[in-house]
Amino acid sequence: MKNLKLKAARAGKDLSQQALADKVGVSRQTISAIEKGDYNPTINLCISICKELDVTLNDLFWK
Amino acid sequence: MLLAIVPVIIGAVVLLVVLLSKDENKYDERQELISNRSYMYAFYVVFFINIVVMMASFFEEIPKMPTIILATLSLWSGIIVQSVYSIWKHAYFPFTVKHGEVFGIHMLILAFMQALIVVIDRFSLLGGEASLPVEISLSIGAISACIISIAIFLRNYLDKRAEAEK
């Protein structure tokens, strides 16, 4: 299932996939895979993404 | 024999120095997951080839495959499966270093392994007579390197096209 909340939050911060990937220390393809719903990130990566986007885990990764 | 083994030893030392002098390559968690899966698939392929050859050896009508050919076939099949799968899933290159650099080191390792196979075969270190002509042995290595290169090229091409469509 696509993670549209992540995409929206990233766009809201005006960050490209590559920019967010650089900030959290992963490859651009990993961010793309999370947004497409092809990959379930570990809790550590979820926390890093949330910190960079100034949102909570519930906002991005909880239905 | 010494003349042939010396370049292999020099190759091993150069390879070791190159690998030890590099900082740790950085793969992210998804890439490590894909990488582990690619090793698993490579293992299955090598296992399957060996089982098939072993089964075939039970039949007298089928000529026996020399050990060195089986070793070469297993080695390159495994490497091709592992490399192509991880290239396709964007897990072949660490995301922190230049792709060309990593590709060069990988090709160096493959060339070294192929040279090792040739030396083992030429000097019959596995017993029996040399069974694989050097040209064929080197051609197998070159074809494998080409397959990996084509996979990289194709992946890059598809990525660029997808980006352009966005």
Give the proportion of residues in helices of chain A.
55-70%
Which fold name is given in CATH as the topology of chain A? Answer: 434 Repressor (Amino-terminal Domain)
Instruction: Give the ordered list of helices and strands of chain A.
Output: HHHHH
Average predicted local confidence, pLDDT of chain B: 81
Radius of gyration of chain B: 18 Å
Major beta-sheet overview of chain A: none
- What is the SS-derived class of chain A? mainly alpha
Euclidean distance between termini CA atoms of chain B = 59 Å
The CATH architecture of chain A would be Orthogonal Bundle
Give the beta-strand count of chain B: 0
- Beta-strand residue fraction of chain A: under 5%
Overall geometry of chain A: globular
Description:
The complex is a heterodimer of chains A (63) and B (166). Chain A is 67% helix and 0% strand. In chain A, helix 2 crosses helix 3. Chain A is globular, with a radius of gyration of 10 Å. Chain A has helices spanning 4-12, 17-24, 28-36, 43-53, 57-61. The longest helix of chain A is centred in the C-terminal third of the chain and has 11 residues, at 43-53. Chain A starts with a helix and ends with a helix. Chain A is mainly α. Chain A has 5 helices and no strands. Chain A has one domain: lambda repressor-like DNA-binding domains (434 Repressor (Amino-terminal Domain), Orthogonal Bundle). Chain B has 166 residues and is mainly α. Chain B has one domain (2-165). Chain B is 76% helix and 0% strand. Chain B has helices at residues 2-21, 29-56, 67-88, 99-122, 134-165. The longest helix of chain B is centred in the last third of the chain and has 32 residues, at 134-165. The chains are: A mainly alpha (63), B mainly alpha (166). The interface between A and B is small, with 12 and 6 residues. Chain A: Keywords: DNA-binding. Chain A: This is HTH cro/C1-type domain-containing protein. Chain A: Residues 6-60 form the HTH cro/C1-type domain. Chain A: InterPro entries: Cro/C1-type_HTH, Lambda_DNA-bd_dom_sf. Chain A: One of its GO terms (molecular function) is DNA binding.
